[in-house]
Amino acid sequence: MLTQAMPSTIRRDIARPRVSTLALAGAIEQMGAPMSYARNSEIYGENEAADYLYKVISGTVRTYKILNDGRRQVGAFYSAGDMFGVEVGDTHTFSAEAITEVKVLVIKRSSVIAAAQRDNAVARQLWSLTGRELQRVQNHILLLIKTAQERVAGFLLEMASRAGGNEVELPMSRQDIADYLGLTIETVSRTLTQLENSAAIAVPTARRIVLRNRAALAQLSI
Amino acid sequence: MLTQAMPSTIRRDIARPRVSTLALAGAIEQMGAPMSYARNSEIYGENEAADYLYKVISGTVRTYKILNDGRRQVGAFYSAGDMFGVEVGDTHTFSAEAITEVKVLVIKRSSVIAAAQRDNAVARQLWSLTGRELQRVQNHILLLIKTAQERVAGFLLEMASRAGGNEVELPMSRQDIADYLGLTIETVSRTLTQLENSAAIAVPTARRIVLRNRAALAQLSI
DNA sequence: CGGAATATTGATCAAGATCAAAGCGAGTGG
DNA sequence: CCACTCGCTTTGATCTTGATCAATATTCCG
Questions:
Q1: DSSP H helices in B42-119
Q2: Contact state of A222 with B68 under an 8 Å Cβ cutoff
C-alpha cells in the first residue's frame, strides 16, 4: 500500500511518454517519480494490485512472504540501482518493506505496459527485467540446498559483489539474513563466528563484515 | 545439444511467419517442428546456446544443474502442454533431459524473437512465459524451506494438480524427486511410507501414487 | 530366468533447530 | 554524564530431523 501521496508530477510525466525518449536504454525509469519510505515501512503487500514498479535510489528493500505457519521467507534484498515489484501478472507475489530509510523511483505499471505496446525496446526491457529476476531466484534455490556454511559464504559473496569491495556494511538484521537463507538467527550467528575463527572473514561490528579470504569463501560456497 | 537432425520443414516454416497467424493466441508454438527424444537423452546442455525453445507434446522432461561437488539439482519437470528452454539471455541456464520417451515441438528462438519485434502479442506471450517460469521457481523456493513431509506432500499435490485427478503416475525416479526436493532418495522413500501409514496416500506400485486424503496432504504442505 | 537398476527398510551419525541465558550497543531519561 | 532499558546478537546445552552407511526387496528387461 502506498503510504504517501503520489507526487503530482507523476501523472503528467507518464501520461504522454515520448517514444523517442522511451526507446533509449533505461527508458522505463524515466517514467518514475521519487518517493521515500521510512525504516520498516511497507512499500506494498503480497496480493495487492501491482500498479507500480520501483527502482531503488538509496537504501535497501526486502521482499518476503509469510507462510501459513508464521515463518517468513525473504525473497530478495534490493539496493541502489535495483528494480523490484516488476510483475507479469497484475498482483504482487511478495510483500516489500524498507529495511533502512529508502528512496525509490515509483513507476506506473500501466504506463510502462502501454509504452511497451508501442515501443519494442521497452517491451524487451520489461522482459529482460523479469529474466534477471528469474536468474536471481534460480541462484537463490542453489543457495538453499547447501550447508549453512555454504549459504552464509554465498550470501556474503553476493553482498560483497554488489558493494564492490571486501568490506560489506549489512543493512539487514540477522533475522533477515536467516529468513533469506532458510536458517535460524543462531545458526547464522554461529556460522559467522566459525568463518571468523577460520580467518575467512572479520566481523568488527555485527553489521560490518570484512572478507579476509575470498578464495576460502568461494571454496565454501560451492 | 541437439541429438537429432532438425526436420527440414523447420526452416521453411519459421523463416516467413505470417503476422496474422502469429497474432493469435498460441502463436509461438505454430512455429514449431515436432521432434522426439529417447528416455534419458539430453535435449540441451547447460551453457549451450539457447537456439531453440520447446513445447512438450508428450512425455516428461527434467531440467537440472550439476553442482561443483557433484550433487544434482533438478529445476523442474515439464509435461504435455508445458514450454521449456525459454531464456531471456542467449544460453541455457539448465540442462534438459527426457525422463521418458518425449515428443516436443522445437521452435527456433531467433524466429520467435523476430516475430516479437513485429508483433506485440508475441512479445507479450514471451514475457508471460518467463513470468510463469518465475512463479514456478518462487514456489519451488517455498518448497525447499519446508520439512521433508511438507516437501513431499507439496510435490504430490503439484503433480496431482497437473494430472487433474487423485491418481498420479510418476514418470520420474525417486532420485529425480529427491534432487528436485533437496532430499535423499531414502528420505523421499521413508516419507512416502509415512504418508501411506497415515492414510494420506496409497502407493500401489512405486511409480503410482493415489491421494487418499488431500486435506491431510494440504495440511502438511503448509 | 537372471541380472541390473530402482526402491525400501534399518541403524547410526551429524547438522542445524530449539530452548535458555548472557552480552553488547544505541538511545533515553534522570 | 551515567545508568537503565530495549532490541539485537552471541554463546551454550540439548534435541530432532534428515543424511549416511548398509542390507534387503522389488521391478524391469533382455
A1: 109-118
A2: yes
User: For strand D, which nucleotides have at least one atom less than 7 Å from a protein CB?
Assistant: 8-13, 17-22, 26-28
State the Cα–Cα distance between residues A194 and B22, nearest whole angstrom: 58
Q: Which residue has the higher pLDDT, A5 or B212?
A: B212
Give chain B's domains with CATH numbers: 8-143 (2.60.120.10), 148-221 (1.10.10.10)
CA distance B83 to B80: 9
Q: Most B CBs within 10 Å: which of A46, A65, A74, A137, as the mutation test of the B interface?
A: A137
The 10s digit of each residue's pLDDT in B76-130 is 999 999 999 999 999 999 999 999 999 999 999 999 999 999 999 999 999 999 9
Better-predicted residue by pLDDT, B105 or B6: B105
Residues A156 and A171: their CA atoms lie apart, in Å, by 12
Could you tell me which of A97, A105, A94 has the C-alpha nearest to residue A62?
Answer: A97
- Residue A8 to chain B, least CA–CA distance (Å): 30
C-alpha cell at A9: 508530477
| Torsion angle, alpha carbons of A109, A114, A120, A122, to 10 | -30
Place of cell 504418508: B195
Contact across the interface for A131 and B87, Cβ inside 8 Å: yes
Give the Cα separation of B111 and B100 in Å (integer).
28
Please state the pTM of the whole predicted model.
0.89
d(CA A163, CA A100): 16
Question: E strand or H helix at A37, and its extent?
Answer: strand A33-37
Q: Determine the distance between B97 (CA) and D22 (C1') in angstroms.
A: 31
B11: Cα within 13 Å, side-chain hemisphere: 4
Rounded CA–C1' distance between B212 and D29, in angstroms? 32
Residues of B in contact with A88 (CB under 8 A): 127-128, 130-132, 134-135
Q: Do residues A112 and A52 make contact, with C-beta atoms less than 8 angstroms apart?
A: no
- Whole-angstrom Cα Rg for chain A: 19
Chain A, chain B: beta-carbon pairs less than 8 Å apart: 93
The per-residue b/e assignment along A162-200, b for 16 or more CB within 10 angstroms, e otherwise, is eeeeeebebbbebebbbbbbbbeeebbbebbeebeeeeb
- Which set of grid coordinates corresponds to residue B115? 516475430
